[in-house]
Amino acid sequence: MNSKMLTAKQIVSRALKGLATPRVANGPLAVHFCAKVAGVSVREYTTNPRVLAECVIRYYERFRPDAVWMSADTWVSAEAMGATVGSMGDDQPFGGLGPPPIRTAADVDRIPPPDPGSQGRYPLMLEALTRIVEALGREVFVVACFDQYPFSLAAALLGINEIMFKLADDRPLVEALMERCLEHGLAYARALDNAGADMLSGGDSPAGLIGPRAYRELAWPFERRLIAGLKSATGKPVSLHICGNALPMLADMAASGADVLEIDHKVDLTSACQIVGPEIALWGNLDPIGVLAQGSVAQVQQATRQALAAVQTCGHRRFVLSSGCALAMETPAENLEAMFKMAAMKPDYE
């Protein structure tokens, strides 16, 4: 198969479907790294749709990945739902400022219905995605982050410590808030689909802190509902990411309905292939700090070689080579280039 006959978008699409590809599909999670490539501050990247889009385009022009990501931080939906967000410096990501906005059931009732066209930074993100799709969308696979799954979004609105107490003391409040988070997640992700995203990605990392049983009882049902709603409404692949060693929850994650699981570097890739089965795509999972940011080119090559060998030995055809989580801004260009060169190898399982 001649790689020149396929676009980068087609290579990723084929990889997600388990079809033969001329080389290993790739798409590291480049977010604030794009700002570094373009020489602008994270604040500019996070608050200006033209700048965000230009940073992603500059990153693509510099490294030519198969997939690019449209994301700002993990507080876009929380801001749209009433959280006060901001940063402590020009190159610091946005986070929550001040006390969490939700304390009581009455606070939940005051959350307005979702309107991606007007609330918070939703319009900014939609404009940035539109610009990225217009510039790259014919050739490049565009992943749009709809931010957080319901449990993680609820944790941002209640506060991570408070939601842990409420799980035991006031489960109805947590679930009522998660229902509102589900509404916003569905509305925002559908708007991203309308703006041209090829895949819809969300994170649920705080759900990884509550243990497999609580995850299965509380976070997982809401993940399933959000994923089912998006697949029915959009027909686009939907991805799920939980940071850290999610291996104890991986079987449930695989049963969530997600088409793609974004695997952190702490998850053993061979075990992941065996647990999730052949019908689910894995996206990962090089260590973004210890290897890609702080390792040598030789270490990047070795880690990439090991990841590809694990997937190929398991015969797992649905795979996209990536960082296990977002690239650090200080990632050396030569390390990223080394990863891309390894991805250019012909897959053994074609």
Fill in the keyword field for this structure.
350 residues; 9 strands; single chain; two-stranded antiparallel sheet; alpha/beta; 51% helix; 16 helices; globular; 7-stranded parallel sheet
Structure, explained:
The chain has 350 residues and is α/β, with parallel strands linked by helices. Helices cover 51% and strands 11% of the residues. It contains 16 helices and nine strands. It has helices spanning 8-17, 32-38, 42-47, 49-63, 76-80, 105-109, 122-136, 150-158, 160-169, 171-194, 211-234, 250-254, 269-276, 288-293, 297-314, 333-343, and strands spanning 67-70, 85-86, 95-96, 141-148, 199-203, 238-241, 260-263, 281-286, 319-323. The strands form two sheets. The protein has a seven-stranded parallel β-sheet with strand order 1-4-5-6-7-8-9. Strand 5 (199-203), helix 11 (211-234) and strand 6 form a beta-alpha-beta unit. Helix 10 (171-194) runs parallel beside helix 11 and helix 15 packs parallel to helix 16. The radius of gyration is 19 Å and the shape is globular.
Summary, kept brief:
With 350 residues, the chain is α/β, with parallel strands linked by helices. The protein is 51% helix and 11% strand. It contains 16 helices and nine strands.
Helix amount, in percent?
40-55%
Terminal Cα span: 9 Å
Query: How many strand segments?
Result: 9
The largest β sheet comes out as: 7 strands, parallel
Overall pLDDT score: 96
Order of helices and strands: HHHHEHEEHHEHHHEHEHEHEHHEH
The stretches of 5 or more residues where confidence is low (pLDDT under 50) are: none
The shape, in one word, is: globular
Which strand-content bin applies to the residues?
5-15%
Compute the gyration radius: what is it? 19 Å
Q: Please, how many helices?
A: 16
Helix and strand content put the structural class at: alpha/beta
Widest sheet, order of strands: 1-4-5-6-7-8-9
